[in-house]
Amino acid sequence: MEFFYILILAMVQGIAELLPVSSSAHVIVAEKLMGLDPTSPQMTMILVMLHTGTMFAVIAYFWKSWRETYFASAQQFRTNGANLVIATIATGVVGFGLMHIIKHFFVANPSTFEIEHLFGNAKLMATALASAGVLIIVSSRMKDRGDNEVNTRSALIIGAVQGLCLPFRGFSRSGATISTGLALGVNRRRAEQFSFALAVVLTPAVIVKEAYRLYQVEAASAGSDIAVLLHALVPGLLGMVLSFLTGLVALRWLSRWLEQGRWHFFGAYCLFASLVVLWVG
């Protein structure tokens, strides 16, 4: 893949991933405009590597605040760690359950279906974007309730909502989880911290899944030479570095708008972007 394509995808991913506007939808639209196939194993793997870059940006950006809250004491670590585990389990149950339902009840040939096949569906992506936009706008009307923390109940609900985002490109994970936290009365900063802590937990599992999927496809068509897989990962590694740098910029933007009461602007953008996706698709 040409360096120019990787540069564009990494910039789109790095900015959009950490803003509540669905990076996946933006990257998929960019891929289509450049004549690339967003449903191919190579492109889904590159997308995951771009997510990896933004994951490291999240760790770098939030590390100081996490250290002051999540790692402030043994009790805080146990409490916050338990909430992350609860939310992640809820994500897995809802996400994989939803994928199973889609595969067996809404697909003509479930034996050959993979959830990545949905990634190129413009109507589905536009609907997900619009849904995220409405959720963000509604949550922006919620009053910030001071120092309310994430508790077991809110962690369970936030994790379940994150699970709804897994099959649908366009349903922004960060937008949905932060908005859910706000709707449940969680402090804005705490909702943001918890949302991105969940992202750090979730991303490695997604990377392993996509790496294995890519290896299976490449091995079936070109033998089991590991060099084939490594060659396919090179563009993704380059994109990972670029998305890390742009991700740091995007996080500063998100934090500032969230804390200054401009959260609804992201929702309005999602509604606009849903129309663009329909036009491009």
Task: Write a concise synopsis of the structure shown.
The protein contains 10 helices and no strands. The protein has helices at residues 3-17, 23-33, 41-69, 74-105, 122-140, 152-165, 173-183, 188-222, 226-259, 263-280.
Count of individual helical segments: 10
Low-confidence stretches: none
Mean pLDDT: 82
Over the alpha carbons, how many angstroms does the gyration radius reach? 18 Å
Biggest sheet details: none
Subcellular location: Cell membrane
Pfam families: BacA
InterPro entries: UppP
Protein name: Undecaprenyl-diphosphatase
How would you characterize the overall build of this protein?
One of its GO terms (cellular component) is plasma membrane. The chain crosses the membrane at residues 41-63, 84-106, 118-138, 194-215, 227-251, 263-280. The protein is mainly α and 281 residues long. The chain has one domain (3-280). The chain contains ten helices and no strands. It has helices at 3-17, 23-33, 41-69, 74-105, 122-140, 152-165, 173-183, 188-222, 226-259, 263-280. Helix 4 packs parallel to helix 6 (152-165), helix 5 runs antiparallel to helix 10 and helix 7 packs antiparallel against helix 8. The radius of gyration is 18 Å and the shape is globular. The two termini are 23 Å apart. The model has no long low-confidence stretch (mean pLDDT 82).
Distinctive features:
281 residues, mainly alpha, 0% strand
What is the element layout, followed by pairings?
Blueprint: H1 3-17, H2 23-33, H3 41-69, H4 74-105, H5 122-140, H6 152-165, H7 173-183, H8 188-222, H9 226-259, H10 263-280
Helix pairs in contact: 1-2, 1-3, 1-9, 3-8, 3-9, 4-6, 5-7, 5-10, 6-7, 7-8, 8-9
